[in-house]
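Below is how a single chain appears once it has passed through the pipeline. First comes the sequence as given, then the structure the pipeline wrote out for it. We keep one example in the README because the format questions we get most often are answered faster by looking than by reading.
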Amino acid sequence: MQIKLPSNIKKNSYKWIVTILSGFFIFLVLFVYRAYHIDKTPSLTGHSVFFRSLSHAIITSLSFYFVEFHLSPRLAIEKKIKPFVTALIATLIGLNFSFLTFNYFYQWTELYWTSYWPFLYEYPLIIAFPVTLSILIDHFLSHFHNSSNSLIVIISNNQKQRFQINIENLLYIKSADNYIEIFYLSSRQVNMHLMRKNLKDIEDEFGSHQPLMRCHRSYIINSDNIDHVNRRNNKVEVCIVGEVIPVSKKYAGLLEDKFPQLFTTY
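Resulting structure:
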């Protein structure tokens, strides 16, 4: 059985912002500002300006939702340009579906290049503003949140390495013999930092940080970043950014205290 946990919206702030704003601006331009003479050319299907504007807005938001939440995680692209690449893909998808929707309202009488051509430059011009605004808003929110967020500092056994990170960006720490592998988020990408230290030291030093918890002899996790929990018979696993992490019976009680609804029959 797979149980979804409440999502951490902060991790996906840009995705949600651009998904909502893209559709909103399409609606604003079409319905409020009556762009492209949408009110002067009644649809052959009899649909109102409001309905047509809302349809184009929903199609646009769905296009961005699909690309940002489903396609983007599968794209191996430089993180700095990824928002622009995904926005371009979503724009092309939304553009073509909007063109088909436009033709539906006019009973497929506009399936010509001369009708399609305006969509190729008018639609991206509208989308460019909400995409740019979304990036700026996300950057501001990230900066504001990080500036007020608690930091943890991990120092290696030989005192030569010092690793500092915001607690919300720490995903999990895995034991690797005399080393630990620290998995964390940076610009929406998962990174790993190797350090000479043992997991027991981490548990002793940061046990007071509420989100950090031992779940296995080889793992300490940030429970705030759990995506979902798998329960199969008497086995429990947590999933964090696609990584399946075992939860031993010895530490299951810690997870039960934080998420008691998952253990009603455990």
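The longest strand covers residues 179-186.

See the next section for the split statistics.
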